[in-house]
Give the backbone structure.
Amino acid sequence: MENDHIRADCIEATEFPDLATQYHVYAVPRTVINETEVIEGSVPEAHFLERVLKAVEEDQREMTNDEQRE
Amino acid sequence: MALIREEDAVEIRQRLAAMVDPVKLIHFTQELNIEYGRETRQLLEEVAALSDKLSLELYDFLLDHEKVAEYGVDKVPATAVRNGKDYGIRFYGIPAGYEFAALLDAILEVSQGTSELRVETKEKLSAVTRPVHLQVFVTPT
């Protein structure tokens, strides 16, 4: 809700076993951010935010690398 | 037979009384090859009945292509929680157990038009300019 660039899915793992396998979901909750960052279990808000920002940074870095390569 | 027990319905109705703006549940489902299709739809219908500010819109995943594209739904059952704005909140699968609490929280926050996050969190998030896709995996128990 806080940013139009962010979207969130809550996925019931037992109904989507292929996804559960793809993202190695063995224990829940498991949060996947942009396909790369993974958070196991419930974590405090500040930690969650840190991981989101880290994923954004990674994405930014990759984008910059791609641009430099061109 | 109702999926939500009478005692729980009373509690949920009380919780939903705190809603401010109307909220729409946009639900996508299909006839066949879906594990809890019928139950999910019934559950959402029962929840929507517990508040005048809550409504349910039903779409067929295989037939309503425009809506599927509009909401970016790629699997069913899927439920979007929105008010006048679509914030990109989706529930995939039956919202039972832990997910049900999350659904009620989402309905209330969307109804208030603002999240329950701390000020510092909101400030840091507002600076994000890259797409972020969060996928939270849960189970019904």
Remarks:
- Chain B has a mean pLDDT of 94.
- The two ends of chain B are 21 Å apart (CA to CA).
